[in-house]
Each structure stands twice: as structure tokens, then as C-alpha cells.
Amino acid sequence: MEKFLKALREEGYTHNTLKTYERVLKYFHKFLDFYNYDFRNFDEEKLYSFISVRYRTEKSFRTAMSAIQQYLKFNKVKRKLKFQPPDTGEFKEFRPIKEEEIEKLESLIERLRSSELQTAMLMVIHLGLAPAEISKLKCTSYGVFLNVPVIQEGKIKRFVINEEINERLQKLKEEKLPVAKLISSSTATMKVTFHNLMKKAKLDLTVADFKDNYVAKLLKLGFPVDIVVEYSGRNLERVSYINRYVNLKSKADIIENVLKKRNQP
């Protein structure tokens, strides 16, 4: 590895790039050590899985694979590695949303003129519902299941775990029955309002981030993974990943501990 890094240094690679490559290659050697592989003979699928635990964004994954690919080429190993992370749709790193960020958004939502639009935005940030999903809700979509307030409309299912939203939906249902739509605001209006809220709050957050954080809330409350999958709109792989983040040691930490124990005299 030192010879490889020295060669890159002589080619004019920057100090930061060399440090990044060094970290990647140390982790690559931990992978080889963990599975008792040689760098000339290893399982690529296991490598992708191992690397994706530490390098969780697509950009960092590509950088890591580039470093390993160059390292193998330097050692005259002919392997063409994939630069696309496994299961790209579920690969996005979980971004916990801070309480102060939620409070900032709630403050901005209070200033909206439309009460229904306020309710819709609260449903986005607290329940992870997308504007298109909110548009599909009817008065009859909101109710109670086993004494728990819920929203159910086709595949759209959410436990209403926010008391303010619960009170607002009860009021809307009473006012609108038997009128079909629960929220009258159009999907386009909700999307524009959401975008403006993020801009005013100076937050780079998407509806998917709020959906993930709703998943995290349910997991912290103790709901089992299968129930969270059913009531969050997230698939099993994504919920399992967030569950590892919220409740369990990361795979990387477990591997580090195993290797430490193995190397102890």
C-alpha cells in the first residue's frame, strides 16, 4: 500500500486525495482480513456490501471504488469493479432532522394564511406524507384503529402520532363530512409551499427525509419493523437500515470490534 501511495504522490496527487485513498485502502484491507481474502481473490458482492456500510453516499462510494480499482491495477490485478452502489434507491444516507429545525418550520407554517395548508405542511414534516399522497385523502381516510388515530387510504397508511395534527384532522372531518376531500389545497400548491418553506428556513430537506424521520419516530416508540413498513410507505430494506441506525450498532462498528478481538494477543 505504501508503494502505491508513494507512486500517487509522485504523480502529483493532492495531500487530501492521498489521505482519502489511504483511509479507503486501510478499510479494504480490513475487509480482506475479516473474510480471510487475498487482494487477488475476493468476493466482489461482499466487497460492495462492506464498503457501502462506511461510504454511504453515491459520491463517496465511487471514490472508494476508484481508489481500490487503482490499487488493484497497480498490483497488476485485473478486476473491473462496479462504481454504482448496491440498491441505489435505498442507498441514500439517513438524515436525522433536529428538533430546532422542526421548530423553525412549525413557526413558518403558523404564518401561512390557509389553515388547511398549515395542516398539510404539518402532515409532511411530522408524518412524512407527500403532497400527492395528501391530495388523495378523503374525510373517511382519517379514523381510529385499535384506539390509535390513523390515516388509511389505499396503500397510504400513517399513525397520527402528533397531537396537533390529530386535533386538526378531527376538526376537518367534522366540518367536511360527507364532502370527499380532507385537504382542499391542490398538489401543486402544496409542493410550491413546501419548497418555499425549505427556502425560508434555509434547509436542504426533501419529503423523503421527513418520511425517513417518521420511520425513526415509530421505531423509537417500539413499533416492530413489519408494522413500520406497513404504516410508513417505506420498504423493508429502508426501514431495516434506519432501524440499524436508530437502535443497533452499525455493521461497521461490529466488524471493527470483531477484528479488534481477533487481533488481541
UniProtKB/TrEMBL annotation:
Sequence ranges assigned to domain Core-binding (CB) in this UniProt record: 1-76
Record-linked InterPro entries: CB, DNA_brk_join_enz, Integrase_recombinase_N, Integrase_SAM-like_N
Keyword check for DNA-binding: yes
Gene3D superfamilies: 1.10.150.130
Pfam families attached to this UniProt entry: Phage_int_SAM_1
UniProt KW keywords: DNA integration, DNA-binding
Protein name: Phage integrase, N-terminal SAM-like domain
